[in-house]
Each structure stands twice: as structure tokens, then as C-alpha cells.
């Protein structure tokens, strides 16, 4: 059987632990993958290399698919985020995060099944910050028509393919009339001219967050600019059990990088308590992507097998501590492996 080369970045903190667990499940499930391991983040720095080595970027561009563990970014000083750099340099402009209730994971809400689409390349993540005077610093929010139209097209195309019914844009265009205004007008235009069949809703983000917490089941696809997408992703993770259960993908024309929404969780790193499920779910998204892109049904079949196994494990109460269980990272991986058919 032909194997597909996939770049693997273990990352920092809990990254190596959750990647090891994910690799183990995929290997046992018979995923037709060949890992091309390379470094980014603190792990690359420790080897005396750039925080995002050119070789890592080249390998992702060459193989077009990567599975990535979280990378640490120093707060308030130090190098710019590896994650932001990676998304910008490979033009991975669309981040997708499916947020769903899982059977066996008790939460305050039921019926949550929404997908977050986040613009990944601009907004306040442009990294344009200035010291204006001794007293004043400034951060610039950037919006381009190109990126706003690109993500709007992507979101409506995605919603159509996935047979989703409704897109809601969260914005603050009442205050940021130019930047959020452009984002909103772009989405509105794409809806009106190209996808009038999809229900469309605009909400000012503060009211949108309140509605999310009142009844998340009223939302289907959320379309947000970069920072709002980041914040709302974690908020939505909280609705379905936390960061341990929300996977993610970053798509662009030149490739796709799959990674969990969570970060490197330094507070629990090295303790064998991290939940590997979010990365495993991201790997399932990756297998489905490979199945579509390479027309390889085997990848789709393995994705189904892995998904059925982790659902089965959760239903049997096999859970890590963040979900109220008692299993460690490796024990949860073993519980999933035992349920592979
Ligand atoms: P975080 O997501 O790492 O952790 C937030 C909380 O969730 C912590 O209490 C952590 O223990 C818990 N948590 C996260 N993942 C978990 C898992 N798999 N299982 C169990 N519990 C889990 O967010 P943070 O603490 O704000 O950030 C830590 C570092 O990660 C920072 O350097 C940040 O820049 C980086 N980060 C990286 C990415 C990425 O690589 N894509 C994303 C977000 C944050």
C-alpha cells in the first residue's frame, strides 16, 4: 500500500507527549503514513536553530501536509510566535475548528455542533507594533480586501460542501468601521452575490458571545477575523469539555497544517496527564483531507476507524483528567488502541 509522506512537528511542552500518543494510535490503525519529523519552536532553538527553521517550511511546502504539536511563544517579549509565522509564511489563511459535544463527555450544553472559520493571516496578528512616545505604544490592525474576500469565499464554499445551513459573522464594525467594516462587507457581498441559499447572520461580537453562552446550538458556522477567532475558539472549547477535545486545521493554497486548538500547556508538560484527543482528532481531519486530496479511500477508512475507537473509549468512561477521568496520556492512547476494529 502506498504511504503518504506527512511532516510531523512534535512542538513544545505537552507537544511531544500528545504527538507520541497520536502516532501510536495511527500506527495501530494502519494509517498509510510516513512521518517526516522536523522541529519548530523551543525544540528548534535548543538545537541552535531558528525558531522556525527554513528547512521545516520547505518540507511542509514540499509535502503539502503537516501534523503539528503546539509551540510555546514567550509572553510580552522574545521571538514572534512560530504559529503565526508558519501560517503567514505558508499563507495558511483559513483556520477551521469543529466544536461538537462528544458522547461520554458531560458538559453544561448539549446539541453543540458548530464550526469556527478564522482568518489566519492579518488583523491584530500583523505584528506591526510601535513605540510612539515614552508613554505610548501602538499595535496596528490590518485588513486587506484580498484577505477578507478570500476567507469569505472559503467559508461559504466550505459551508456549501459540508451541507451547512448558516454562517454567522462576529464583528465589531460599529467601532472598527474600516477594518471590521471591510471584513463584514466582504462576507455580505459573497453571501448576496454567490451564496444566497446559505442563511447569513451578522452579530456584534459581544452580543454574539452572550448568545453563544445562552444557547450554542443556535450556531452553525462562525466566521471571524483573526483575534476574535482565537478567543472564540477557546470559549467554544469550554462549551464541549475544554481544549482537550477541539481539533483544528489551517488550510491554504500551498498546503495544510493540522493542529489542536490548545497550546503547549507548560503547567502539565512532562507529567503524562495531557489529553492527546485534540491532536488525534486533528489527525483524523488530516486523514480525511488526504482521502479527498489524494483520492485515497484507505485514509478515509482509517479516519473512521480511529474516530469510532475514540468515541467508544469515551463512551466507556475511558478519559483523561481534564474530562473528569483518571487516565494518563499513554493510558488513553492504549484505551483507544484496544477499541480499534
Ligand atoms: P494552553 O492551551 O497551553 O493551556 C490552557 C489551559 O488548558 C492550561 O491549564 C492547560 O493545562 C490546559 N490544557 C491545554 N491543552 C490541554 C490538553 N491537551 N490536555 C489537558 N489540558 C490541557 O494555553 P496557554 O497556557 O495560554 O499557552 C501556553 C503556550 O502555548 C504559550 O506559549 C502559547 O503561546 C502557546 N500556544 C500555542 C498554540 C499553538 O501552537 N497552536 C496555541 C495556543 C497557545
Structure overview:
With 341 residues, this protein is of the alpha/beta class. Helices cover 41% and strands 17% of the residues. The chain contains eleven helices and twelve strands. It has helices at residues 15-28, 42-46, 54-63, 82-89, 145-161, 179-194, 205-214, 226-240, 277-293, 297-315, 329-338, and strands at 4-9, 33-37, 65-68, 94-100, 113-119, 129-131, 137-139, 166-171, 199-204, 221-224, 249-252, 255-258. The chain has a ten-stranded mixed sheet with strand order 2-1-3-12-11-4-5-10-8-9, sandwiched between helices. Strands 6-7 form a two-stranded antiparallel ribbon. Helix 5 (145-161) crosses helix 6, helix 9 (277-293) packs antiparallel against helix 10 and helix 10 (297-315) crosses helix 11 (329-338). The radius of gyration is 20 Å and the shape is globular. 46% of the residues are buried. The model has no long low-confidence stretch (mean pLDDT 96). Nicotinamide-adenine-dinucleotide (NAD) binds at residues 14, 18, 70-73, 83, 243-244, 259, 262-268, 274-275, 278, 322. Nicotinamide-adenine-dinucleotide binds at residues 14, 18, 70-73, 83, 243-244, 259, 262-268, 274-275, 278, 322.
Distance between the termini: 19 Å
The ordered H/E elements are: EHEHHEHEEEEHEHEHEHEEHHH
Number of discrete helical segments: 11
Low-confidence stretches: none
The secondary-structure class comes to alpha/beta
Helix content: 40-55%
Shape: globular
Rg from alpha-carbon coordinates: 20 Å
Instruction: Please give the number of β-strands.
Output: 12
Biggest β-sheet: count, sense, barrel?
Answer: 10 strands, mixed
- Biggest β-sheet: strands ordered side by side in the sheet: 2-1-3-12-11-4-5-10-8-9
Structure ligands: nicotinamide-adenine-dinucleotide
Strand content: 15-25%
Mean pLDDT across residues: 96
Amino acid at each position: 500500500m502506498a504511504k503518504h509522506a506527512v511532516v510531523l512537528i512534535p512542538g513544545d511542552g505537552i507537544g511531544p507527549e500528545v504527538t507520541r500518543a497520536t502516532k501510536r494510535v495511527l500506527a495501530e490503525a494502519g494509517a498509510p503514513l510516513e512521518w517526516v519529523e522536523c522541529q519548530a519552536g523551543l525544540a528548534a532553538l535548543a538545537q541552535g536553530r531558528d525558531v522556525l527553521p527554513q528547512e521545516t517550511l520547505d518540507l511542509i511546502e514540499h509535502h503539502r501536509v503537516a501534523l503539528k504539536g503546539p509551540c510555546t511563544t514567550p509572553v510580552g517579549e522574545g521571538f514572534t510566535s512560530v504559529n503565526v509565522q508558519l501560517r503567514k509564511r505558508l499563507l495558511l489563511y483559513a483556520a477551521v475548528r469543529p466544536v461538537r459535544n462528544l458522547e461520554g463527555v458531560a458538559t453544561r450544553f448539549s446539541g453543540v455542533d458548530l464550526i469556527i472559520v478564522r482568518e489566519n493571516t492579518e488583523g491584530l496578528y500583523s505584528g506591526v507594533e510601535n513605540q510612539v512616545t515614552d508613554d505610548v505604544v501602538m499595535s496596528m490592525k490590518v485588513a486587506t480586501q484580498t484577505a477578507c474576500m478570500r476567507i469569505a469565499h472559503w467559508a461559504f464554499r466550505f459551508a456549501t460542501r459540508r451541507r451547512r445551513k448558516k454562517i454567522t459573522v462576529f464583528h465589531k464594525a460599529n467601532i472598527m468601521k474600516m477594518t471590521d467594516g471591510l471584513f463584514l462587507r466582504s462576507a455580505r457581498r459573497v453571501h448576496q452575490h454567490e451564496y444566497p441559499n446559505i442563511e447569513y447572520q451578522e452579530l456584534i461580537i459581544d452580543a454574539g458571545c452572550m448568545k453563544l453562552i445562552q444557547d450554542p446550538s443556535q450556531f452553525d458556522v462562525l466566521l471571524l477575523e483573526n483575534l476574535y477567532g482565537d478567543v472564540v475558539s477557546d470559549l467554544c472549547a469550554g462549551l464541549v469539555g475544554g481544549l482537550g477535545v477541539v481539533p483544528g486545521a489551517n488550510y491554504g493554497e500551498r498546503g495544510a497544517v493540522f493542529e489542536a486548538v490548545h497550546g503547549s500547556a507548560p503547567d502539565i508538560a512532562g507529567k503524562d496527564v495531557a489529553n492527546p484527543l485534540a491532536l488525534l482528532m486533528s489527525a483524523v481531519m488530516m486523514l480525511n483531507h488526504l482521502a479527498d486530496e489524494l483520492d485515497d479511500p484507505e485514509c478515509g477508512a482509517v479516519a473512521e476507524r480511529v474516530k469510532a475507537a475514540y468515541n467508544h473509549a469515551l463512551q466507556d468512561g475511558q478519559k483523561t483528567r481534564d474530562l473528569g477521568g483518571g487516565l494518563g496520556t499513554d493510558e488513553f492512547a492504549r484505551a483507544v488502541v484496544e477499541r480499534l476494529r
